[in-house]
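Progress against Task 2.4 (sequence-to-structure conversion) is shown through the following example record, which the project officer requested during the mid-term review.
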Amino acid sequence: MQYRALPIASFACVLLGLPAFGQDDPASASSEVLELSLSQAIERGIEHNLDVAIERFNPIAADLDYSAAWGAHEPVANGQFNTSSRATPTASALQAGNSQTSRFTGGDVGVGGVLPKLGWTYELSYLGQRNTSDSSIQTLSPEYKAEVAATVTLPLLRDFLWGNEWTQVKLSGIGRGVAFDEFRVRLMDTVQGIATAYWNLAAREQDYEVGKKSLETARALLEQTKAQYEVGVVSRVEVVESEAGVADREFRLITARNVYETAQDALIDLVLGQQLRPTTTLTVVTTDDPATFTEFAVDEGVVAEKAFALRPELSVIQRQVEQQKVSVKFARNQRLPSLDLVGTYGYQGLAGEPNPAPGLFGPGGARQVSVAGNFGSTSDFFFEGGDNRNWSGGAVFSIPLGNTTARSNHRKSEIQLRQIETRAIRLEQSIILEVRDAIRNLRSGIEGIHAANRRVDAANEQLRAEQIRLEHGESTPFQVLQREEDRVEAESQKIGALQVYHNSVADLERAQGTILRDRGIVVEDALPLR
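Structure tokens generated for the chain above:
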């Protein structure tokens, strides 16, 4: 693939009397030309096509959704800290003075989370606090307390095996496959679209050349008729008929040029993406010969079997059915009453210094404390003896009365499952129609090429014969123009038949799901972001 500049006005421009390149011809001297085969166009399209570029983000997002769903099962560290001071008026025979002042400082830290699949929650926490008080009945001041505990909550009915977190893991895991298959769908559609645009451009280019050839013939006929009129062989009416023929073909050539340039833009957009700008002067020249075709037989049953095995759309819908079945199971679980077993096990610790405030029995209280020490001494209680162990166990249950929301959601999920399963059947039928249509068009395209070739040969011979008759005075310019118009129509039919054939080949490859494999495209290579 190389860019080159088209030569300035050629001999054909002078011969046909067409405007010079750079004025009205699609490929002007100031434009660049990019010669592309179909395989090269597809290769560039995979790199630059904007629809493919957009679709590349979805598998990445699906992977992140899956990671995020697993992230819900990661342990979470938490903690809090607070401090307070309180002065409380008192009127008690046990309390010296008229008020009591206490200060509190404490907090807790812990780690907790949810176990995958089971839905069990756990938490391991550590709590510590410091209290000071001038209360007469408070033995320790400052007093240090600490507690370490482990708590586990075990759902037995609702959320067991089908909790929200685990359901999201399963749904997003399937969603990764959906995103990958949808990228395959987009890639296939793009390749098919590029092939269709490529052969459409080739056909429009041929139409434009046929139009130029037709105008050349009409102008040559006009010059001949003028010469005959000057020597008195034909009347002025026949000159006017020839002039009208030239004007008609000039108009048709203008239309053909506009259609050709539109086809250029369509292919550039698919193949080069953002390189198509308002001021683009690039011209794409197709190098594959449309006249080259291969006749081959196809079997509807074999093609349909391939389609059912390889079409990514079927894989997408099957994964969506799988996702909806997960949603049904989750909704069914949510109808159950809630019954959770809750258990806690831990230790407490205590330390401090005797309260210097006078008590009922003098400083230090009624007895000497045996827990003297600082905050670090509280942990001595955790593993010494069994007197400081704490445990609890129980069950928590709730039964929604009526349970309308859960039952409605379950019913809705079942209806949606049936809907997706029906869509899968509809998709299979659509694929059958696509296969049959592609095969039918392929066969008719091949037959049409043979028929069009015969008509072109006949039209050329009829035009040649009519021109000879005109030279001998046995015909008129009008009749020659009619024969020439028949030839143009025959050429157009041949161009159309070849275009139908090539498009049908791409359609058949797309219908049976082999368009990427047949053209050597590896999805994994096309997937990374550009």
